[in-house]
Design a protein that fits this description.
This protein is an alpha+beta fold. The protein has a domain of 101 residues: Butyryl-CoA Dehydrogenase, subunit A, domain 3. The protein is built from four helices and five strands; from the N terminus they run H-E-E-E-E-H-H-E-H. Might be involved in growth regulation, and in myelinization in the peripheral nervous system.
Length: 154
């Protein structure tokens, strides 16, 4: 596994929790933190905080946990890279990467099931950050499994 792979996954993880679009449509852009009204040209006119629903807070928390687990995985990879003996496996790194993937999956699944309570109109479509969350889930899971299988060479 190359050294660029953990960086790519970390960037994907951070991108899908930032102030980006999880739902788009009907003059609105919605993410995990705020709802914005947009003009016909796409310029943001007014933003207000997202709902204080328990399900949305659980989505926010699990996405933050996924970033924490990804950062820990990256840090532990570099630590294990210099401390593991020849032939050792990156178990700890893999476990944290798998946990990050499971947190992303949990958050995206909760959002998929519950967003209809928040936006009752059917004029909405999923935004790119929502799709990135579902793309990051299998990538994080796969990289975690590869870390567990990976052996250190001299």
């Amino acid at each position: 596994m190359s050294l660029g792979s953990p960086w790519l996954l970390l960037c994907l993880t951070i991108l899908h929790i930032g102030p980006f679009q999880w739902l788009v449509g009907n003059g609105h852009r919605t993410d995990l933190w705020q709802n914005c009204t947009t003009s016909a040209l796409g310029a943001v006119q007014h933003c207000y905080s997202s709902s204080v629903s328990e399900w949305l807070q659980s989505v926010q928390a699990t996405m933050i946990l996924s970033v924490i687990f990804s950062v820990l995985s990256l840090f532990l990879f570099f630590c294990q890279l210099f401390t593991l003996t020849k032939g050792g496996r990156f178990y700890i790194t893999g476990v944290f990467q798998i946990l990050a993937g499971l947190c992303v999956m949990s958050a995206a699944a909760i959002y998929t099931v519950r967003h209809s309570e928040w936006h009752v109109n059917n004029d909405y479509s999923y935004g790119f950050a929502y799709i990135l969350a579902w793309v990051a889930f299998p990538l994080a899971l796969l990289s975690g499994i590869i870390y567990v299988i990976l052996r250190k060479r001299e």
